[in-house]
Amino acid sequence: MIKDNPDLIQAIRNRFAHVDSCPFQGERIFFENAGGALTLKKVVETSAFYAAIPDNPGRINPAGQGTQDVINKAKADLAVFMNAGAGQFFAGESGTELLFRLIRTACVNAPKGAKVIGSSIEHPATRSAAQRWAGIAGLDYVNVAHNDATGLVTAEDYAALMTPDVAVATILHASPVTGMGIDVAAISKAIRAVAPDCLIIVDGIQHAAHGQLDLNAYNVDGYVISPYKVFSRHGYGIAWISDKLSAMPHDMLIDAPATGWEFGTRDSGSFATVSDVVEYFDWLGGEVSEETDPRKRIEAAGRAIHAYETHLTVAMINGTGNLPGLKDMEHVQILAGEDNPAREGLVSIVVKGMDSPDVVEALNQEGIRTHTRKADHYSGNVLNPLGLPDCVRISMCHYNSESEVAKLLAVVNEMA
After folding, report:
1. Rounded to whole angstroms, what are the CA distances from 214 to 285, 301, 408?
2. What angle do CA 367, 369, 372 make, to 5 degrees?
3. 103, 91 Cβ separation under 8 angstroms
4. What are phi and psi of 116, to 5 degrees?
5. E-assigned strands of 70-139?
C-alpha cells in the first residue's frame, strides 16, 4: 500500500501545491488538514483557466455549451465518487450554507408536532440549523448525547431515543474536533427501523478526504461536502439530495423547474475542479490496486488512504524510531483515548501547563502548522464536558509522511 512505497508517497506529494512550504512562512509541515486540505496542482490550473471564461453555462454558443458539459461531467463524476444511484448533486455557497438549506427544507415540510433528532457531537453547521428550524417549524428537538471519553455517538444511542414521530434526523460522519468517524449506515438503519420516512441529512465535510463515500449504502436523503477539505478550493460546497428531498417544496424562483435547487449562475470552474479531485482518487486507486473499473479504483484509494492515515496516527500516538509517542509523554493528554479505531487522521491533545494557543505558536515557530480548538460555538460541545478550555488539533492527510510525524514528536517531547 502507501506506507511501504516511498516512490508513491513522493508521487502523491508532487501532485499537491505547497506540500512542504508556505508562500507566507517558508518551509513548514502541514498538520492543519481538518481546517482545509492541501490543493491539487491540477485544481489550481483548472481554476485559472475557467476564471477567464465570460460565458454563462448553458447558453447557445460553444463556450456556454462547453462549460455546461463540464458541469454535467462533474455531477456524473460525483455520482461515481460517492456511489449515488439516484438523486441529484448541486453547488452552493459553502458546506454550512447547504446543510442549513437542506435542514430548513426538511423541517418546514415536516408534520406539525413531529421531532428532529441529532447528536451532541455534531458540528454547529447541523446542530444550529436543526435547532433553529425545529423551533420555527414547531418541532421538538431531541438531543442524542455522545460519549465524552470516546468522542463517538452510536446507532444504539440514537435507537434509545427514537420514536415513530421523528421526521428529520442529522448525523455527523466525522468530528473535526476528535477526529472520530461515525457509522452513518448503522445509525440510518436504526432511525429507519422506527421512523422509515424520516428525512436523514449527513454532514460529510470532515470525512470526505479520508476514505470512500457510499451513498447507496447509507440510505439517507442529504449528504454535504466542502471541496476545499477534499483537495479542491474554497468558495463553494456540494450537496447530494435524494429524489424525495429534491421534490419537496423549497426555496426557488417562481415557475422554475420543481426539482431545481441551485440559485443563479454557477461557477463552471468549481465543478471542473471536482472532476480533477475524482480523477486524482481514480489515479491513486490505480497505483494501489489492479482494478480497472473507476468506482473500484476509488474504493481501493479510500482503503489505502485510511490504512496509511491510521499508520500515521498510530506512529504519532505510539512513537516512531527512538522517539516516544504522545501517549508516553506524561505532559500530554490525548482526547478520545489512545487506542480508538474510529480515528480518521486526527489527534487532538492538551499539553499540561501550557495554553493550547501557546503550544500551536511554539510548533509554528518550528515550522509545524497545527490549530487551536477552543471551547466556543464551534467546539464547546466536545471540550466543555471534558473541562477543557481548548486543545491542539493535529490533523493529517495521506500526503503527510512519517518523518513529519517524527519532527512533531520531537518538538512536543521537549515541551515537558
Report:
1. 16, 13, 34
2. 135
3. no
4. -115, 135
5. 88-92, 115-119
pLDDT for the residue 212 = 87
* CATH class given for the domain over 6-39+302-413: alpha beta
E strands, 145-289, are 166-172, 199-203, 222-225, 237-241
Contact (CB, 8 A) for 180 and 174: yes
pLDDT of residue 66: 92
pLDDT at 404: 98
Cα–Cα distance measured from residue 282 to residue 359, given in angstroms and rounded to the nearest whole number: 38
Copy the grid coordinates of residue 242.
435524494
CATH 3.60.15.10 fits 45-278, yes or no: no
The string of pLDDT tens digits covering residues 74-115 is: 999 999 999 999 999 999 999 999 999 999 999 999 999 999
Q: What is the pLDDT of residues 46-69, one digit of tens each?
A: 999 999 999 989 899 998 999 999
Q: What's the gap between Cα 227 and its chain centre?
A: 9
pLDDT confidence band for 71 (50 / 70 / 90): very high
- Spatial neighbors of 300 by CB under 8 A, at least 6 apart, are 285, 288, 289, 291
CA dist 177 and 160 (Å) reads: 25
- For CA atoms 378, 44, 262, 224, give the dihedral sign: negative
Phi-psi region of 306 (alpha: psi -120 to 50; beta: other; left: phi over 0): alpha
Domain ranges of the chain: 6-39+302-413, 45-278
Task: Using DSSP bridges, classify how beta strands 319-320 and 88-92 pair: parallel, antiparallel or unpaired.
Answer: unpaired
CA distance 20 to 34: 17
What average pLDDT does the segment 208-213 reach?
90
pLDDT digits over 128-145, tens only? 999 999 999 999 999 999
Q: What is the pLDDT of residues 276-321, one digit of tens each?
A: 999 999 999 999 999 999 999 999 999 999 999 999 999 999 999 9
Same fold, 6-39+302-413 and 45-278: no
